[in-house]
Write the structure tokens for this entry.
Amino acid sequence: MPTLESSGVAEISDLASKADCLPDFTTDQYKDAYSRINAIVIEGEKEAHDNYVAIGGLMPDKADELKKLAVMELRHMKGFTACGKNLGVVADMDFAQKFFAPLHGNFQKALKEEKLTTCFLIQAILIEAFAISAYHVYIRVADPFAKKITEGVVKDEYLHLNYGQEWLKANLGTCKEELFKANKENLPLIKSMLDQVADDAESLQMDKEELMEEFMIAYQDSLLEMGLDSREIARMALAAIV
Ligand code: PL3
Ligand code: FE2
Ligand code: FE2
């Protein structure tokens, strides 16, 4: 028969086994993988800042709101920079810039052509859903310092995703065609970025299937909120595998 005392003991051992499951943050393998993943996140946050400022340039009446989102991204960038420093890791920024180059190129092209739908899809939906999925999975296996920072960041990322989602929802009557086209061109890039980062993520005990699952939840929920129907959402999601 369980006594008060024995249930207390069980709780402590549960906690201990949970702590045992976390990776060893001091190994060379962990730090090597972290040097690339940390750089990707720092670069992603920096580009997110630049992208929101750039979108603000196309929407002068919303420039102040977008500037606020951009400032949050700089705070995220600083937070993740501190996470790398805390572990004694030097972020491989050259790797990260190459990692983002195809998506960055597509965003810049859309910006030049003043295609707001494409800009919002790339930054606010695809990149933010990618970040949300990565941060959710990372929080479960992060060191205590990084866990706290990432928990604060992920809340902001939902605000960013929502901002783009609400703009696309309000403009859905006129932007669907561009939305589908932009999705077809850019969702495969997100899939390929996920493939490229999978081995390093594994070294951080982040599971690829879990990352994909979390991405699909954030992405599909957002399309649903935008007002797309199940067939349209299925069609959009399938663009990742063709
Ligand atoms: C915009 O707010 C954020 C853009 C950042 C995108 C980063 C995606 C990260 C993918 C890498 C998976 C590992 C995550 C680990 C977190 C430190
Ligand atoms: Fe961010
Ligand atoms: Fe963001």
Summary: The pocket of hexadecan-1-ol (ligand 1) is lined by residues 37, 40-41, 44-45, 48, 73, 76, 127-128, 130-131, 134-135, 138, 157, 160, 197, 201 (CB under 6 Å). Residues 172-203 form the longest helix (32 residues).
